[in-house]
Design a protein that fits this description.
Elements: H1 2-26, H2 28-33, H3 42-63, H4 69-95, H5 101-127
Helix pairs in contact: 1-3, 1-5, 4-5
Length: about 130
């Protein structure tokens, strides 16, 4: 239970820092050109992160093997990045007028890969070599 709670909190803290830095800090003007709100509704983002953090913390020990925690975390993070990115990058670019579709895919695709690679590694390190619940 301790690793589960730590994983959820690590997810929330890291994703918040990475997402705000990426979308509101480093690439704010680019995302405004993609149609992002000038004042995002942070409560919806936080609720989304809580749901994702709970699911990620639950899934990781169920799918990780007894390999290196960094390797398993990175593998898990990249699987989640491509799963979540298939919607958050490709489907959204197909549904919404994001301006330059290729630019949106590059920026948001990079964001998903970087964010989930980092988060996956940290969750892997939290679980260490004892991946299986007990």
């Amino acid at each position: 239970m301790k690793r589960f709670v730590l994983s959820v909190f690590a997810y929330l803290i890291l994703v918040f820092i990475i997402a705000v830095t990426w979308h509101v800090g480093l690439f704010n003007q680019q995302y405004l050109s993609f149609g992002m709100r000038k004042e995002p509704i942070f409560q919806l983002g936080i609720l989304s992160m809580i749901i994702q953090g709970l699911i990620s913390a639950y899934l990781f020990p169920k799918v990780a093997k007894e390999n290196s925690p960094i390797y398993e975390g990175l593998k898990f993070g990249l699987i989640i990045a491509f799963f979540m990115g298939s919607y958050g990058v490709l489907a959204e670019a197909g549904k919404y007028d994001v301006g330059s579709v290729s630019s949106y895919i590059c920026y948001e695709g990079a964001f998903f890969i970087i964010q989930y690679a980092i988060v996956g590694v940290v969750i892997g390190l939290i679980h260490g070599k004892k991946f299986k619940a007990n």
